[in-house]
Amino acid sequence: MAEALLGIVIENLRSFVEQDLATYWGVDQQMQKLSSHMTAIRGVLKDAEKRQITSEAMRDWVQKLTDAAYVLEDILDECSIQSKKVLCGVQNSCLTRFHPKDILFRSDIGKRMKDIDQRFHDIHEERSMFQLAASVTEKQGEDDDKWRQTSSVIIEPEVYGRDQDREQIVKFLLEHASDSEQLSVYPIVGMAGLGKTTLVKQVFNDDEVSKQFDLTVWVYVSNDFNVERILQSIIESTTKQNPDRKTLEAKHKEVQEVLQSKRYLLVLDDVWNEDKEKWKELKGTFQCARGIKGATVLVTTRLEKVASIMETHPAHHLKGLSEDDSWSLFKHHAFGPNREESAELLAIGKEIVEKCVGSPLAIKTLGSLLHDKTEVRQWQNVKESEFWKIREESSITSEENSIMRALKLSYFNLELSLRRCFSFCAIFPKGFEIVKEELIHLWMANGFIKSEESLEVEHVGNEVWKKLYRRSFFQEAKTANM
Ligand SMILES: Nc1ncnc2c1ncn2[C@@H]1O[C@H](COP(=O)(O)OP(=O)(O)O)[C@@H](O)[C@H]1O
Ligand SMILES: [Mg+2]
């Protein structure tokens, strides 16, 4: 992130000097100094970004650098805008370059440049405390072609090792729940990335299940258990109309009408709510609407407590994938169907999979990471990476710690420019379906991607998206039936 930002700012500085704007605003000497400090800092940033994972002092230093880079970017932006105004003025009304406003601006910019110059000087000095290793810029391109040959293989996600769980839930829906006069609530509990949503999607799309219910509705709930929003989602997905303007009461009523006399299956995916009252309010509406036996709510959650608040049926605890299923999933992503598997890679792969504690998310992510790495040394690097040694976070379980390590390892293996594009996606709310073209436009607007030689910037954006997708940083949104 910091590296990519620094690259952009250095580039802006260079173009500023080339256009003689630095001389015009009387800051060329400071710019030269800044540029040399920043180039030196950039040389060691790759090492710094890696080490900040384990060192708080390093993290502070990178943060200081990032803050300073943003301030400098702002100054350059202001100079650029002011320069355009002056140039316009010269053409249109023959203003002299020493208009009083320009003189004030020069003095202000001169002061701010001096301050920022000092900040970078200090950051540059502090660098020596950490004994950071200089690195060469990463090479790109070679990996892409290998990916192109097999990428189509994993476009459709394949589900491994959930047959028993699926059968158990389907059986519950078809047999037990269908006889019940009461609303049945079946919670599925497990840590992040274990495959709860994937499993419930399979159940939701099962032919027998579809036949059993008059109405099936999928609602992504997430952290904010907002009753009104949930009601709204149900109305929208069943009537295809937006009930935005209606009162909460009207929405309760409409949901009751929609569900009335129907054997319905409702999925509430990723619930975090521990507030009993909120659930009671919603459940009341679902129950009022019940006009036929067998109405069921399937809930996915990471929290045991949520399950115990909502359940009418004991929680279904999802486990990690078995050793064999973990291995099949890993092979699918790491090798694809056509690649020869050398005994050495297989042996290292097995050890890597073991570290993933049966988490499909971790296995898939590391498998995708290794897909374009063909040398034993590269696999060994992943297996022996320092990321596996990151200190445990006490707030999460040891399994969750293992998964976080796998995900961090994969993130820090991304080219630096890709990390920035990916981190930017944090602006979207959880569970948000991102439209690829819009994301590319946002990357462009924020200056994260630029045209390259003969490639249009949209094309560059598309390549960035593809690389992130292949590394499993994006998940294809399944919209059918939901
Ligand atoms: N049984 C499985 N086989 C293959 N891939 C899986 C399996 N379960 C989950 N995945 C993949 O792992 C990732 C996380 O799964 P997800 O269902 O979103 O987890 P959760 O809902 O528990 O957080 C997804 O990319 C999904 O495609
Ligand atoms: Mg989920």
Automatic annotation (TrEMBL):
<dbReference type="Pfam" id="PF18052">
    <property type="entry name" value="Rx_N"/>
</dbReference>
<feature type="domain" description="NB-ARC">
    <location>
        <begin position="164"/>
        <end position="335"/>
    </location>
</feature>
<keyword id="KW-0611">Plant defense</keyword>
<dbReference type="Pfam" id="PF23559">
    <property type="entry name" value="WHD_DRP"/>
</dbReference>
<dbReference type="InterPro" id="IPR002182">
    <property type="entry name" value="NB-ARC"/>
</dbReference>
<protein>
    <submittedName>
        <fullName>Disease resistance protein RGA4</fullName>
    </submittedName>
</protein>
<dbReference type="InterPro" id="IPR038005">
    <property type="entry name" value="RX-like_CC"/>
</dbReference>
<dbReference type="InterPro" id="IPR041118">
    <property type="entry name" value="Rx_N"/>
</dbReference>
<dbReference type="GO" id="GO:0005524">
    <property type="term" value="F:ATP binding"/>
</dbReference>
<dbReference type="Pfam" id="PF00931">
    <property type="entry name" value="NB-ARC"/>
</dbReference>
<dbReference type="GO" id="GO:0006952">
    <property type="term" value="P:defense response"/>
</dbReference>
<keyword id="KW-0677">Repeat</keyword>
<dbReference type="InterPro" id="IPR042197">
    <property type="entry name" value="Apaf_helical"/>
</dbReference>
<keyword id="KW-0547">Nucleotide-binding</keyword>
<dbReference type="InterPro" id="IPR058922">
    <property type="entry name" value="WHD_DRP"/>
</dbReference>
<feature type="domain" description="Disease resistance protein winged helix">
    <location>
        <begin position="427"/>
        <end position="477"/>
    </location>
</feature>
<dbReference type="GO" id="GO:0043531">
    <property type="term" value="F:ADP binding"/>
</dbReference>
<dbReference type="InterPro" id="IPR027417">
    <property type="entry name" value="P-loop_NTPase"/>
</dbReference>
<keyword id="KW-0067">ATP-binding</keyword>
<feature type="domain" description="Disease resistance N-terminal">
    <location>
        <begin position="6"/>
        <end position="85"/>
    </location>
</feature>
